[in-house]
Automatic annotation (TrEMBL):
This is DHH family phosphoesterase. SUPFAM superfamilies: DHH phosphoesterases, NAD(P)-binding Rossmann-fold domains. Residues 17-131 form the RCK N-terminal domain. Pfam families: DHH (PF01368), DHHA1 (PF02272), TrkA_N (PF02254). PANTHER family: BIFUNCTIONAL OLIGORIBONUCLEASE AND PAP PHOSPHATASE NRNA. InterPro entries: DDH_dom, DHH_sf, DHHA1_dom, NAD(P)-bd_dom_sf, Oligoribo/pAp-PDE_c-di-AMP_PDE, RCK_N.
């Protein structure tokens, strides 16, 4: 052991707080010191080699000579936040971990292992992080390789698309889902970018867009998709498959259909390809094809359109069952990348397609403004852009406790609309409506026992400027008429 006291600078004992302590400063320790150079004044190095310590001091680093296995060493050093134990001696590192953990249990310890066995020992003795340099280098090499391959794929796809003119048919799997549809949109965006518009794209599918949520997805994002026919197939100069791996796999294409591009995340097991596509990227370890497409867009530095971003985010979310199934870190990373680029309110609407945003608003008004008399609910929802929201609100309000008949009314652009829903078997709501509202000029009313509707065109009342006033003026007398007909008087309300 080297006697270190003689070389210690006088001020070491009173050294201000340090943040980082490096024990053992060979080449790895020196590289860590370099990485920390922004914080240089907060780093203290301890090494057994006097010459090395002198060199470090010459370069204005704080360094002292000391034996890292010596339990007394720490008495001379203020408590650090983090200790790097990086000597090339596994027993010395193990002893240093023990010394640190008993002197300063709160300090974070990052220790270097010399082999996998000593790595386990270091962990057992309390090291928070153990680095085995050979393994770190190996992991990093493989990581770099994966990134290289991925970005080379993106480049290859881009240059292939940029060399084409004519029409590219992008075929989703049968009964396309949001993953397939959004991937097709992204491929169309890359194609138009790569070709400078010289390559037209058509998104094609064979089956049905079945699920209500999927239809909402296509409608709300205004995605143009066409039914695949032999004629359209004949009009395409190139064909791409997204979210399915080969002709005849989850699509009805003849096995010998020449496919130029395949991008997919399904297993290739059992796939017999009659022709090899020019571009094939199939990654079974990724949660969604949309995730692969997002990576291309990032690697190619292409601007991502709001609709495409929204679609891809939704595609990843749907294929990973709301990020719970087959999820890889790459999927999460891509979803996080897309979220700020996507349309949040649109996402919310797609996720709850049975109830539109306006219907929710209308329903909110209907609940606040409701008046209930003997099981009859009346609600004025005011001005409404989408007239379908009124019957939907009436449907929902009929589910309220104690309500047997619900009547919701409001003004749509050029008429007063009223919807009635009824579950009282003694009442034929269509007949009563007809009777109650027929005195109004231009009104058309009618319906069945359980549901009825009324529409009063407003042009007959065009002299009245204030539409809300108009609504009350017209509807109030007919509502009292209605109440009279069903046998309740206006005076007695039981709830409001
Ligand atoms: Mn998929």
């Amino acid at each position: 052991m080297v006697e270190s006291d003689g070389i210690l600078p006088n001020n070491t004992q009173t050294h201000k707080k340090i943040k980082y302590l490096i024990l053992g400063c060979g080449s790895i320790g020196y590289n860590v010191l370099e990485e920390l150079k922004e914080d240089d004044e907060n780093v203290l190095v301890v090494d057994v080699n006097e010459k090395r310590v002198e060199d470090l001091r010459d370069h204005r680093h704080q360094a002292i000579v000391g034996d890292i296995t010596d339990p007394g060493l720490l008495a001379k050093i203020p408590e650090p936040e983090v200790v790097f134990i990086l000597a090339a001696d596994k027993d010395a590192n193990l002893a240093a971990v023990q010394n640190i953990k008993s002197a300063y249990p709160q300090t974070h310890v990052i220790a270097r292992a010399m082999d996998l066995f000593s790595a386990d020992q270091l962990v057992d003795h309390g090291a928070d992080v153990v680095l085995y340099p050979q393994q770190v280098v190996a992991k990093s090499a493989v990581n770099h390789m994966n990134n290289l391959v991925a970005s080379r794929n993106a480049q290859r796809l881009f240059s292939l698309l940029s060399s084409w003119t004519g029409t590219l048919g992008i075929i989703t799997h049968k009964n396309p889902d949001p993953d397939a549809i959004s991937s097709a949109m992204a491929l169309a965006a890359i194609a138009s970018n790569a070709s400078g518009g010289k390559l037209a794209t058509r998104i094609l599918y064979e089956g049905n867009i079945g699920h209500q949520e999927n239809r909402a997805f296509v409608n709300l994002l205004e995605i143009k998709m066409e039914r695949l026919t032999p004629e359209i197939l004949g009009e395409c100069n190139y064909l791409a498959l997204v979210d399915c791996v080969a002709p005849g796999m989850n699509n009805d294409l003849p096995l010998d259909t020449p496919i130029n591009i395949v991008i997919d995340h399904h297993s290739t097991e059992g796939v017999t390809r009659l022709r090899k596509p020019e571009f094939l990227d199939s990654r079974p370890n990724v949660g969604a094809t949309a995730s692969i497409m997002t990576q291309y867009l990032q690697e190619l530095y292409l601007p991502i359109d709001k609709k495409v971003a929204t679609a891809l985010f939704y595609g990843i979310r749907a294929d990973t069952k709301e990020f719970q199934r087959n999820l890889s870190p790459q999927d999460l990373h891509n979803a996080a990348y897309l979220l700020p680029l996507s349309d949040r309110s649109l996402l919310e609407v797609i996720m709850a397609p049975s109830v539109s945003q306006e219907t929710l608003d209308v329903l909110g008004h209907a609940i606040v403004n409701r008046e209930v008399k003997h099981g009859y609910l009346f609600s004025n929802v005011g001005y409404v852009r989408n007239r379908d929201a009124i019957p939907q609100a009436a449907d929902m309000l009929l589910n309220l406790e104690g309500v047997t008949t619900a009547m919701v009314y409001g003004i749509t652009d050029n008429s007063i609309t009223l919807s009635a829903r009824n579950k009282d078997i003694r009442l034929h709501v269509g007949d009563v409506m007809k009777e109650a509202f027929s005195p109004i000029p231009g009104a058309s009313a009618g319906g069945h026992a359980t549901m009825a509707a009324l529409s009063i065109p407003l042009n007959a009342f065009s002299l009245v400027k204030n539409k809300d006033e108009l609504l009350n003026m017209i509807i109030d007398p007919v509502l009292s008429n209605f109440m009279k007909l069903v046998g309740i008087s206006e005076a007695e309300g039981d709830e409001s």
